[in-house]
Riboflavin biosynthesis protein RibD
Amino acid sequence: MLPAKLLKRPRAVISKDDRRWLTIAATLAERGRPSSAPNPAVGAVLVKDAIVIGRGWTQAGGRPHAEAMAFAQTGQSARGATLYVTLEPCAHHSERGPACADLAAEAGIKRLVVGVTDPDPRTAGSGMERLRAAGVEIALANDPACGMSLAGYLCRTRYGRPHITLKLAMSLDGAIATASGQSQWITGDLARAHTHRERARADAILVGGATLRSDTPQLNVRLPGLEDHSPERWVLSSHPTPDGWHQLPAVEELGRMAPHQYLFVEGGSSAAASFLRADLVDRLLIYRAPILIGGGKSAIADYGLDDLASAHNIWSLSARRQLGRDTLEVYDRTPCSPE
C-alpha cells in the first residue's frame, strides 16, 4: 500500500510519452541485474525538450545509483528537465553516497515521474515528498514494466524472499526424461543458450537433492562473455551438500537466501512441486520440444492439487517465442507487482 500522505493526493496525469520513457528506463535497469545486489537494479532517464540528456542504471555493488549516473552526465543542463526513474529516488543518507532525492533537488529538475514507490521504510514516499517540497512536479505511475523490472527487490523487501522463476524443459507430453532417466538433450542448442542467459540474470540457482546426486549439474553460465555471471548454486535438500553448494533444507526457509533477489529453480520434478505446493513460484519458463516420449518422467511431481477449479486463473501467458524448433512460453503471476 502507498503511504497515507500519498493516497490523499490527487493522481497526476501519466501520458503515453511518460509510459514510453518509463519503459526505456526499465530496459536500462536490466543492465544492472543482478550485479547491483544487494541494491535494486534501477533505471533512470533525464529528458529535456523530448531529448535524452542523461541516463543511468544501478552499477555493480549498488553504487552509483541510476539517478547519480544520469546526473553526472548532465551538469547544469538538468535544470528544468524531467527525471523518469523506475523506483522512487532514495531519501536516506548513506556513507556510500548521497540521497538521490537530494541530488535531484539540487539539479533543479522540473518534474519527476516515478514508476514504483519504494517499499523500503527509509524512503517509502519520503523521496517524492522531499522533491515536492522543493517545488518539483511529482507523478507516480504504478507502471507494470517498472514493477516487473524490480520484481526481485519488491519480493525481497515486501515478503522477505527472492522472486522465483521455475524453469521446465519438456516434451510435448510433459516429460523431462525418458522412463530410464535419460534427459540430455530434450531441447536444442538455442533453448539451452536461452536458459544460460536466464541463469546469468539470477543471483542464485537451485536444484533438488535427487537431481544433484544423479546428474551432478554444473549450473554455470556457458555463454561467451558471461561466464563470470554464474549464479550461486543451491540445493533443496536436508542431506549434507558438496563443496561449492549452499543448502536450503526446505522452501519455508527461503530467509536463508537473503539478500538474493532472483532465484532460478531448474530441477527436478520434486523440487518444482515443493515450490508450487508452497505457492512460491512467480514466473514459469516452459521450453517445449517437438517430441513425444510417452511414459517418461513428469516435469512436476504431485503437489497436492485436489480441486481442478483452483488451478485456473493463476498464470497469465506473457510471452511466446520460437527458439529453433523449440517453443518458449513465459507465464507470470502477480504477487510482486506494484501495489
About this structure: The chain has two domains: 16-153, 160-333. Residues 26 and 82 are 16 Å apart (CA to CA). The two ends are 6 Å apart (CA to CA). The first strand starts at residue 43 and ends at 48.
